Amino acid sequence: PGMSNLEDFVPTFDGPLGSLLLNERDIVIIELRGLKHSRPNLHTPELAELQMELLGKHLTSDELISAYKETIGSIYQRLTEQGVNLSAYNYWETANDIAFVMEELGYDKFALFGNSAGTIVAQYMLIEPAGKLSALSLNAVVNVPAGFNRMCQSSINKLESIFAEFEGKSSYASASPDLKKRFLST
Known about the structure:
Layout lengths: L4 H5 L6 H7 L22 H10 L6 H21 L9 H14 L5 E5 L3 H10 L5 E6 L8 H22 L1 H6 L3 H7 L1
Helix pairs in contact: 5-6
């Protein structure tokens, strides 16, 4: 949270990809509410600090969840004390912000690229504001109702199924012994 679309994507178009794409279309990169260059932003250095603290520690799931809950709780308290209305930061608001910016720039319809959590925002754009998209490209998909928690659980389930498959086939198990243990220790 708090990263920058401008810093992430502008450099991408200052090279061969930009030369290829910019000759035939406009590209609009929007610094969404809560990101680094918006005010207020939701930069959370506490999470980065927690992740550094956790390196090399072998916590149980419960310990890890507890550490994150505590850190997220302190972030919530800090932002609310600063007067940030956190209910204004959600997928619906983001989708409507994008539609508003594009309309203000004079685009009746536009193509949208969704990346990472932006794939959820892009799917909201299909629902409302209706009729604004001429095309949509997603580099990953998470169902809108399921959201981020479902994405994490799906990733865990997929890894578990891979580990089970490797353990269940002798040729895989001999080629990659203790895959789960080695993966988790890494």
